[in-house]
Structures are given as C-alpha cells and as structure tokens.
C-alpha cells in the first residue's frame, strides 16, 4: 500500500493563511495520554460502575481499551451508572495526564502561535481538569486561551458533535472561516466540517493519514513541528 501524501509546507501555510485562530485537539497533537496501550486500566474502571448496576456489557465493549466508547454505552444503556462511570473516567484521565509525555513539536507549535498572535483554544473529548493539569505541569497553560473538555456525563456532546465548536467560536468572537481545527482523529475532521471550520489532520502514520484525508482534512501534517514551521513562515510574511 503506497504511503499517504502529506502536505508540503506551502500547502500547510495555504490552509493556515486563511484563518486566524486555532482549535486544537489534546490527546495526540499535544499529549500522548495513553501510550503503549495504557488505556486498559481506565477502561476497566469506567466499566466497573456499569457492571455493578447489573448491566451486561457486550463484546467488543467488554474488553475495549477505549473508555470513551464505554461512556457512550453507559449513556444509552446504563444511565443510572453514567455519573459514576464519568467520575472514574475523569479520575483516570487526570492520573494519566500526570505522566503523559508532550507530543514532539507541540510546545513549538504553541510558541509559534503565540508569537504570531494566533489564539489557541483546546477542544477535547477528554476532561478539562486532566488537560489543565497537563498544561500547567509542562508550562504550556499561558499559551492556551481556553479549554473545552468533555461535558460531564454528557458523552453525546463529544466530537464530532459541533456543540463545543460553537461555544469556542463564541469565546473567540470569531467566525467559522477564521478558525482551523488541528486533530489526529476522524472525529476531529468531521467536527470541523460540521462546524464549518477548516482542518489540518495530524497523522503519525500512513494509515491514519489516509483516514484523515478520506474524512476531508484540508491538509495533513506528520509532525507538529511542520505545523509550527508553517505558522512561523506566515508570521514572517
């Protein structure tokens, strides 16, 4: 299978030069929240309240490491356990954020945006307290204008639902065409499309790049450093 085409510096700048503000995903572009399959523990802890409520969790949800999918299951099939499951998920994300590494180039990208006067807001399906703690720990908080995390016990409002995008646009006092979403998941690209904002897919491998391109990303970057370079190039222009 041939490698996916990633966007050149000129193609990245062509997307960014049409926008002023950045909507930035967290897990992926900023942090590696669950490296090496470490999401198993939080998924188990998120399942526990559901099982205690006597609700049978079918496969593949009974063994998935994706705790956000478990939350969505709870909202639909075990609403009486949803708040407890959410509390377990938040606690697990906060714990993971304490040891998660910064994505290479993420700090450079945030610095480049700050120097260029681009306002950055983080929009994530992870919990805001985990994101806040991570940014404070690594000295990045002052380069992010606001954080919009997963609404507590309302997983239906996670991306790709555009609700948080509209909240971000209000916070920025910005039009959709003035913003660019940067994310590593298909849901980020769908989220951007639903909200009417441009998007750059962050793809660490060819398969993810193909998925993001198929979802409609306006550009694909293999590294956050490349995106920082594009911001700096525009800043010099």
TrEMBL record:
<dbReference type="InterPro" id="IPR050155">
    <property type="entry name" value="HAD-like_hydrolase_sf"/>
</dbReference>
<dbReference type="InterPro" id="IPR023198">
    <property type="entry name" value="PGP-like_dom2"/>
</dbReference>
<dbReference type="GO" id="GO:0016787">
    <property type="term" value="F:hydrolase activity"/>
</dbReference>
<dbReference type="InterPro" id="IPR006439">
    <property type="entry name" value="HAD-SF_hydro_IA"/>
</dbReference>
<protein>
    <submittedName>
        <fullName>HAD family hydrolase</fullName>
    </submittedName>
</protein>
<dbReference type="Pfam" id="PF00702">
    <property type="entry name" value="Hydrolase"/>
</dbReference>
<keyword id="KW-0378">Hydrolase</keyword>
<dbReference type="InterPro" id="IPR023214">
    <property type="entry name" value="HAD_sf"/>
</dbReference>
<dbReference type="InterPro" id="IPR036412">
    <property type="entry name" value="HAD-like_sf"/>
</dbReference>
């Amino acid at each position: 299978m041939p490698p996916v085409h990633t966007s050149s510096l000129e193609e990245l700048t062509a997307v960014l030069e049409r926008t002023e503000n950045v909507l930035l995903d967290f897990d992926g572009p900023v942090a590696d929240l669950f490296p090496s399959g470490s999401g198993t523990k939080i998924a188990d802890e998120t399942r526990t309240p559901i099982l205690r409520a006597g609700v049978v969790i079918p496969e593949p949800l009974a063994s998935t490491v994706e705790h956000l999918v478990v939350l969505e299951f709870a909202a639909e099939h075990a609403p009486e356990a949803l708040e407890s499951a959410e509390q377990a998920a938040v606690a697990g994300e906060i714990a993971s954020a304490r040891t998660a590494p910064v994505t290479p180039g993420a700090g450079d990208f945030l610095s480049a945006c700050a120097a260029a006067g681009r306002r950055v807001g983080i929009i994530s399906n992870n919990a805001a307290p985990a994101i806040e703690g991570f940014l404070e720990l690594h000295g990045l908080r002052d380069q992010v204008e606001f954080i919009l995390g997963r609404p507590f016990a309302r997983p239906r409002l996670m991306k790709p639902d555009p609700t948080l995008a509209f909240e971000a646009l209000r916070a920025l006092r910005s039009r959709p065409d003035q913003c660019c979403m940067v994310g590593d998941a298909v849901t980020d690209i769908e989220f951007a499309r639903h909200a009417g904002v441009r998007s750059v897919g962050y793809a660490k491998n060819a398969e993810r790049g193909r998925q993001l391109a198929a979802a409609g990303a306006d550009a694909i970057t293999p590294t956050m450093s490349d995106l920082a370079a594009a911001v700096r190039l525009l800043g010099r222009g």
